[in-house]
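Tutorial, part two.
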Amino acid sequence: MSTTEEPLLSARGLRVAFPGRRGAPAARAVDGVDLDIRPGEIVALVGESGCGKTTLARSLLGLVRPTGGEVRFTGAPLTYTAKALKAYRKRAQLVLQDPSGSLNPRHTVYDAVAEGLRIHGYTGDERTAVAEALSRAGLRPPERFFLRYPHELSGGQRQRVVIAGALVLEPELIVADEPVASLDASVRGEILALLLRLRDELGLSALVVTHDLGLAWNIADRVAVMYLGRIVETGPVEKVLTTPHHPYTQALLSVLPESSDAPVVLTGEPPDPTHIPPGCRFHARCQVLASGAADAVADRCRTRDLPVLDSGGAAAAACHWSGARTEAGDGRGAVFGT
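Running the prediction step on this input gives:
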């Protein structure tokens, strides 16, 4: 995919902070992010729980208002009036992690899928639109599911209903937050194959939020690895996941079953987003710094902040150690940190 194509969705300098209680410092959940999603592209946003990836995804959809930076869709800045947000959410839809929690147990499948049409004042043939959405989501024949309730469906079927509810509005972008995390392993592949088919058939773009790098490998064109409110490595999925530059990405990859490297066990917990440390925000847990291999840049790691990664398609990592290795000529690619 061409990286020169105009982004469908873009974020620049995006920040989201939540005020602390009783004068406590604000929690900087998203602390400076540039991100592009191009037409027909699937981007995986990867990171451990609490890193800010769900807050970032919700801010991209206008569900959380940024405290800094901006979001643009088809080149126009997102505005936060009720009318503008309603129009935007017809074009950009959210698919949540837990299909059981996403579906009203008192609503039939038909009503669950038709709800978006009714909210947006759809004037066409509602029955035909619902049937087409269910069929695209892999529930065929769709009429067989119209009068069923969520408790009568399997987990995979419920997730397909949720996806159909997003598809019925014919969006250009889907943001899927851990779309297969609650499903059995046997069903996960089916849902991922469905998302890929929808991209190929409908030209859908997608942001897939996940903690699973294996999932990112199977579905994404590009990957963005997030840690403590900021993207620390990004690039084409094959490049990032086969030759990771950032120690955090290396640690995440090391625990995959297919990895040939010894598992890296990170010490401690991610720092509190109300007290983000100076320098590289990963330095307190960095296995490379702890081993002494990064002694030449240790002072930089602990004191010198790193810039926000560019949103372009080239691989890049926000890492002083990796930057120093690149300067030394080991061919590790484009990185920050010098």
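The first helix runs from residue 53 to 60. In part three we will examine how such features are distributed along the chain.
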